[in-house]
Amino acid sequence: MILLALGAACVVASIGGTVVTLSGGKPAAEKDTLHTCFTRARLFIRQRSEKDWVYTYPSVNGHETFEDRQEYTFTLPIGVDPERLHKHFWVFEQGFGPHIDIEGDSSMFTMKVFNKGISQFAYNVSDIPLEGIHLPIVVGKSRSGWEVYDMVENPHLLIAGETGSGKSTQLRAIITTLILTKQPEELELYLADLKRSEFHVFKNSPHTRAVVNDKNELQPVLEYISLEMQRRGDLCDKYEVSNVIDLPFKLPFILLAIDEVALLKKDKKLMPLIEDITAIGRALSVQLIISMQRPDAKLLESGLKSNLTVRMAFKHADDVNSRITLNASGAEDIKDEERGLMLFKHNGMKKVQGPFLSLMEAKKLLKRP
Ligand SMILES: Nc1ncnc2c1ncn2[C@@H]1O[C@H](COP(=O)(O)OP(=O)(O)OP(=O)(O)O)[C@@H](O)[C@H]1O
Q1: One domain for residues 197 and 249
Q2: What is the tens place of the pLDDT at every residue in 92-142?
Q3: Domain span holding position 346
């Protein structure tokens, strides 16, 4: 832990300014960029001692140099909300350039500063590392390699981004991967395509129980899932287990994906049903993916957002929108031509390039003999 006891005349100056005076009035040298970022992001604790203010900064545990990157590991002081770090991701981008990832989730973090960005690449299911993952959600490639996570552990996902930024392509890659790697008796898909553009490609898959295109068609689907959740809850009670995974028999995962959920926002009947899924679906093996062009603060400020723990933010219009999706700025800096590039929020924040899977290629992969 680095403890900086500063004299009364010594100020940690100009948050957001250019010069940070840490101690004795000496400007921080260039190599102190990390420390400057800690200051600008206010990742320190300030406490009054008898004589002075005492500043507790994150401790830097290590710095390693690799061929393609530098890595800095640091621990936040007790009492600093780790969310502050995510919120101030942009501060670190200003300090270290655009090719950074920050990994970690409570107090210990690693910042990786890469020499270059990530290239676009084509989808190939056999490239994706899937071992040991029950319900694999393919994200793409970060600068450290493949990013795939288990939806059983993190059941609900929010995908947001401007038109043409890559949301539908990402959803296509996610659902195609699930269909190609899970048996129909292991996974049921319920797909709501409120933009009427995309999900028809999955309708002949034996995993797919419903593809709906408007609110009226979605209502019975949500009611069915709601009843199924009740039935699963009753089974858990009967067998005295807290998660359907622990039942003596297997139940399929249920995945509901809703493209352009904002079209439902005024619907007083459907939104509570969707919120129920995010609130209690986890223990019942019922998971949700929602996507939207403009993250809608009103829609998300309900119970929904806190349960959508994993976020994929493709290009956003501005930092206000980015903050709605990620609780952090940054997604507005993704360039128009960087299609399929996202800020991925899950145990930290990192840039990830989604795999490119065209509609035609998906049709070919999903074609049944
Ligand atoms: N991962 C990717 N790699 C390379 N190019 C991509 C990728 N994702 C999308 N693109 C390109 O961007 C175009 C738009 O992508 P996509 O339709 O997925 O955007 P969207 O965010 O769903 O847009 P909308 O909200 O208008 O439906 C694609 O046709 C493709 O050319």
Answers
A1: yes
A2: 989 998 888 898 878 899 999 988 888 999 999 999 999 999 999 999 999
A3: 125-366
pLDDT for 369 equals 66
- Whether residues 106 and 159 share a domain: the answer is no
How far is residue 309's CA from residue 311's CA, in Å, rounded to a whole number?
7
Task: Please state the pTM of the whole predicted model.
Answer: 0.81
| ipTM field | 0.98
Examine residue 119 and state whether it is found in any structural domain, yes or no: no
Q: Is the CB of 165 under 6 A from ligand 1?
A: yes
pLDDT at 221 over 60: yes
168 lines ligand 1 (CB under 6 A): yes
> Is the same domain home to 110 and 226?
no
Residue 302 pLDDT: 63
User: Quick one: which of 76, 261, 101, 287 has its CA closest to 178?
Assistant: 287
How many A from CA of 156 to the centre of ligand 1? 22
For residue 137, the domain's CATH number is 3.40.50.300
The answer to whether the annotation marks 161 as part of a ligand binding site is yes
Residue 9 is predicted with a pLDDT of 27
Whether residues 146 and 286 share a domain: the answer is yes
Residue 167 among known ligand-binding residues = yes
Does the CB atom of residue 358 touch ligand 1 within 6 A? no
Clarify whether residues 56 and 152 are in a common domain. Answer: no
In a domain, 120, yes or no: no
- Which residue, among 330, 319, 323, 261, has the nearest Cα to 290 in the 3D structure? 261
Kindly state the tokens that stand for 224: 């069915």
pLDDT tens sequence across 17-56: 223 333 333 334 445 899 999 999 999 999 988 889 999 9
Pocket test residue of 312, 339, 341, 356 for ligand 1, highest count of atoms within 8 A of CB: 339
Strands 108-114 vs 69-75: parallel, antiparallel or unpaired: antiparallel
Q: What is the three-state SS of 123-186? A: CCHHHCCCCCCCCEEEEEEECCEEEEEECCCCCEEEEECCCCCCHHHHHHHHHHHHHHHCCCCC
Measured CA to CA, the distance from residue 344 to residue 321 in angstroms comes to 15
> Quick one: pLDDT at residue 115?
87
Nearest residue to 194 via CA among 64, 87, 292? 292
